């Protein structure tokens, strides 16, 4: 019986949350094509035979431009301390950037085994993978192990378990057998609403959205959630509500269906859009939202 903690790190948008969801075969982390989607650390727990793997998805490591960004990068860098192994994810379709080099410097600074994972190989030829390996050696140096995967399509997932097994150092399981995440139901609900909004918005709006549950009425057959959607400017409020309220209705419908699936009961969502100027720079408000590490 072995178990261990594995940090998943990388710059924004390389596919960390996609990989995490695929590994645990449940959706615990929301995914979008906008960078900076994940804002907190999320644990995903997988039991494979005798072994328990505890994966920790982290926000993309980037140069912060506001307090929220600082929190996100801190969460990721803090996670590197005290894990048994690190999975450093790269987007194989992109040239290695200064952002990847920044992550590399941090993962190499802690004395922990690092498995480099090249993701999105569904878009690469064999030759391109070989070229990528050379580029990695030249720009990032050596790694304990290198794995190639396409998280979106579940390609190469078994290699992750095989290669990480030797790093599971504890001989007790940390979590009960039926637990697959530490994220609370209310947090998941907030994230589902945020994910639907990210899908329909662009430019600065995805980064300007925060979700807060302000009231809950929960009975065995039915749940009602009153939810505030915060944005930073009046113009953003108009965009999110949409013409005749259409965008907000669409988001509400999609989120409700997913939450009904999660809770296995009927759900009513009341969504309110509010403007909170510069909330990403306000310490107290970030704390209220739980972004205060
Ligand atoms: N083609 C391809 N796309 C992928 C793959 N894995 C992830 N993606 C896409 O890459 C985008 C980013 O994925 P996420 O999982 O949100 O990335 P992340 O690293 O968690 O992003 P942040 O939260 O910004 O740090 C999404 O549009 C995914 O659908 C893959 O294997 N192949």
Would you kindly provide a written description of the structure presented here, covering whatever features stand out?
The chain is α/β, with parallel strands linked by helices and 293 residues long. It folds into 2 domains: 2-167, P-loop containing nucleotide triphosphate hydrolases (Rossmann fold); 185-289, GMP Synthetase, Chain A, domain 3 (2-Layer Sandwich). Helix content is 38%, strand content 23%. It is built from 10 helices and 9 strands. The chain has a 6-stranded mixed beta sheet with strand order 2-3-1-4-5-6, sandwiched between helices. α6 (185-200) packs antiparallel against α9. The longest helix is centred in the C-terminal third of the chain and has 18 residues, at 246-263. The radius of gyration is 20 Å and the shape is globular. Bound molecules: guanosine-5'-triphosphate (GTP).
Number of strands: 9
The hetero compounds bound to this protein are:
guanosine-5'-triphosphate
Largest sheet: 6 strands, mixed
Shape field? globular
Domain Era-type G: 2-177
Region (G2): 36-40
Function: An essential GTPase that binds both GDP and GTP, with rapid nucleotide exchange. Plays a role in 16S rRNA processing and 30S ribosomal subunit biogenesis and possibly also in cell cycle regulation and energy metabolism.
GO cellular component, one term: plasma membrane
Short summary:
It is built from 10 helices and 9 strands. By secondary structure, it is an alpha/beta fold. The chain folds into 2 domains: 2-167, Rossmann fold; 185-289, K homology (KH) domain (GMP Synthetase, Chain A, domain 3).
């Amino acid at each position: 019986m072995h178990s261990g903690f594995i940090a998943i790190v990388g710059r924004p948008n390389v596919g960390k949350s996609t990989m995490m969801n695929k590994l645990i075969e449940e959706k615990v982390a929301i995914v979008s094509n906008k960078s900076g989607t994940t804002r907190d650390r999320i644990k995903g727990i997988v039991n494979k035979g005798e072994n328990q793997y505890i994966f920790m998805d982290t926000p993309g490591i980037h140069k912060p431009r506001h307090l929220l960004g600082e929190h996100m990068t801190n969460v990721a860098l803090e996670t590197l301390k005290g894990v048994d192994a690190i999975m450093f994810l790269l987007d194989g379709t992109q040239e290695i950037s200064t952002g990847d080099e920044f992550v590399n410097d941090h993962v190499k600074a802690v004395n922990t085994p690092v498995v480099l994972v090249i993701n999105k190989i569904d878009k690469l030829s064999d030759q391109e993978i070989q070229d990528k390996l050379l580029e990695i050696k030249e720009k990032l140096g050596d790694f304990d192990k290198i794995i190639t995967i396409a998280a979106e399509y579940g390609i190469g997932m078994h290699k992750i378990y095989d290669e990480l097994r030797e790093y599971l150092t504890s001989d007790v399981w940390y979590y009960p057998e039926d637990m697959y995440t530490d994220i609370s139901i209310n947090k998941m609900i907030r994230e589902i609403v945020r994910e639907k909004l990210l899908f329909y918005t662009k430019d600065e709006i995805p980064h300007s959205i925060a979700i807060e549950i302000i009231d809950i009425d929960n009975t065995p057959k039915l749940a009602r959630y009153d939810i505030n959607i915060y944005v930073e400017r009046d113009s953003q409020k108009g965009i999110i509500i949409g013409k005749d309220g259409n965008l907000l209705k669409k988001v509400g419908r999609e989120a409700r269906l997913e939450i009904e699936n999660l809770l296995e009961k009927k759900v009513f969502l009341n969504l309110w859009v509010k403007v909170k100027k510069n909330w990403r720079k306000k310490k107290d408000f970030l704390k209220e939202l739980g972004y205060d590490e």
